[in-house]
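Subject: design request, 540 residues
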């Protein structure tokens, strides 16, 4: 049972249909903000309305209410209610978070690296954030389809294949170096893409080998990262190849395209170029080739019309904001994105170095992801040399640093901060979990039941009851830093409780009650970390 909903239901009859607006609050157990918007519509003082609400609401002994500040109603929940709900949670494997009644088919488009290139720190964010989205929605009971929109069909492949035909065993970097300096090689690379897309066997042969190699490497990286993407989730750009011409033809038939300098373009309303004119979305280039936008339109159409998805998530960096806004606008106009379907660009900022610029290695190159993870594990081994534990802590620290900050802003990659044992970090949460696990191990079997005495018990219990609205809210907003902040707050409350309230040495009765608190806290931390894709070893 969710206390927020329970209290709201109690206030509702005294509000004539207005929103009870009950939330957790730093000023009280819960707070209702109902009076403030009502004051505007009713033209009365908010404190008067709040006082009315306090007088009229029948809280049935579940809580006491009092007016506070400019017109809030502070709610203090009865200890017996907290204890009863917590005891109930101890017997609920889902920790009070029900599966949704109406599951949606949700496509989570994430990771999607450009396949010819080595995986770098630049791919970390989409992979980690997208996986958290897939995990949380799946746990809530939605039908989640993971889509790894691998860049496996574009110019960089033409370049690499052209290079490898001449220099077997060459690398992507070598190819790029030549590409940068030789217009002749640039032209041959472009022609190679055309050959590839036209089905030239020699080219496709090499292409298949390259893509297969890339996929193997990616799957190894995902496994190491604890990311749930599998081989079956690859839906690379090449898989939409056959649909590109029909998609463009359909857009043309719907009158959505006009020619501009030989290219076919859509002109969704409201997008302005740097020069102040209308901004085109190029769906067919002047050389007849189809680009990134055409592929995304084909993918979107497939996802709504064939897969039947009702929520589309694109976990891609902020620089692509305009691209997705335009793709969504064109798709709406084409009828591929009905009102009942939401399309969301789950955007994020960059990983930054200490200088506030893009995070790079000393040599100025993008940092390879494998090397980054190696370093994370090496550094974590200082905390615990056991290889499995070091991997869980090191990789968990990297992922937590990524998910713990508002995704829209970039974050500074800082080893010392992310591996610190205090503060809002992965290791801090993992250590809290391990500490609780060890208490539970020593505690042996017990019958769950809660009675609250100490303030630290009460504070921990109250916070444990707030898991459900946090998870539900994050599934909507995909603001994972809110789940992270909740878990951090919970771990901190647990640590205070642990300092002030002996568990194993407590008197019979109190001991069981405190073990029950430990049990629910452990499960909540473990589940929360798992939703973020972070391991929680029982022993550290
Ligand atoms: N490969 C693209 C890039 O590296 C990201 C793909 C994102 N997904 C999509 N449907 N466009 O920029």
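Subject: RE: design request

Done. Sequence follows.
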């Amino acid at each position: 049972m969710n206390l927020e909903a329970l209290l709201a239901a109690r206030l509702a009859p005294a509000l004539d249909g207005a929103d009870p607006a009950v939330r957790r609050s730093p000023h009280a157990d819960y707070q209702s903000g109902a009076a403030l918007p009502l004051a505007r519509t009713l033209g009365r003082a908010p404190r008067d309305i709040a006082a009315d609400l306090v007088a009229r609401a029948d809280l049935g002994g579940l809580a006491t209410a009092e007016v506070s500040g400019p017109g809030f109603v502070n709610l203090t929940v009865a200890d017996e209610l907290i204890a009863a709900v917590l005891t109930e949670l101890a017997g609920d494997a889902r920790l009070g978070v029900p599966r949704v009644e109406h599951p949606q088919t949700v496509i989570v488009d994430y990771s999607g690296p450009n396949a010819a290139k080595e995986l770098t720190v630049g791919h970390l964010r989409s992979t980690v954030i997208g996986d958290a989205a897939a995990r949380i929605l799946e746990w809530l009971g939605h039908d989640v389809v993971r889509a790894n929109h691998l860049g496996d069909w574009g110019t960089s492949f033409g370049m690499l294949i052209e290079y490898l035909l001449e220099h077997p065993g060459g690398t992507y970097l070598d190819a790029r170096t030549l590409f940068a300096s030789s217009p002749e090689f640039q032209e041959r690379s472009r022609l190679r893409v055309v050959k590839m897309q036209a089905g030239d066997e020699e080219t496709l042969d090499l292409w298949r080998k390259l893509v297969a190699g890339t996929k193997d490497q990616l799957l190894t990286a995902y496994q190491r990262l604890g990311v749930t993407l599998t081989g079956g989730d690859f839906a690379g750009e090449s898989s939409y190849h056959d649909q590109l011409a029909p998609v463009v033809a359909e857009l043309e038939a719907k009158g959505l395209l006009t020619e501009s300098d030989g290219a076919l373009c859509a002109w969704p309303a409201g997008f302005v170029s740097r020069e102040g004119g209308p901004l085109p979305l190029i769906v067919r280039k002047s050389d007849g080739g189809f680009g990134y936008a055409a592929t995304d339109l084909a993918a979107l159409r497939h996802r709504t019309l064939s897969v039947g998805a009702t929520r589309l998530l694109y976990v891609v960096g902020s620089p692509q904001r305009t691209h997705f806004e335009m793709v969504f606008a064109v798709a709406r106009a084409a009828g591929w994105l009905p009102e009942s379907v939401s399309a969301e660009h789950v955007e994020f900022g960059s990983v930054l170095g200490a200088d506030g610029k893009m995070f790079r290695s000393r040599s100025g190159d993008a940092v390879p992801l494998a090397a980054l993870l190696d370093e994370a594990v090496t550094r974590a081994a200082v905390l615990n040399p056991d290889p499995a534990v070091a991997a869980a802590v090191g990789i968990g620290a990297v992922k937590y640093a990524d998910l713990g900050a508002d995704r829209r802003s970039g974050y500074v990659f800082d080893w010392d901060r992310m591996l610190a044992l205090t503060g809002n970090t992965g290791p801090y949460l993992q250590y809290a979990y391990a500490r609780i696990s060890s208490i539970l191990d020593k505690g042996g079997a017990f019958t769950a039941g809660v009675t609250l005495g100490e303030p630290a018990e009460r504070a921990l219990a109250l916070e444990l009851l707030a898991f459900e609205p946090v998870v539900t809210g994050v599934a909507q907003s995909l603001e994972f830093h809110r789940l992270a902040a909740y878990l951090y707050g919970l771990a901190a409350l647990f640590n205070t409780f642990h300092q002030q309230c002996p568990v194993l040495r407590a008197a019979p009765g109190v001991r069981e009650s405190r073990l029950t608190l430990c049990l629910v806290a452990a499960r909540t931390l473990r589940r929360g970390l798992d939703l973020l894709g972070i391991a929680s070893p029982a022993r550290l």
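The mean pLDDT is 95.
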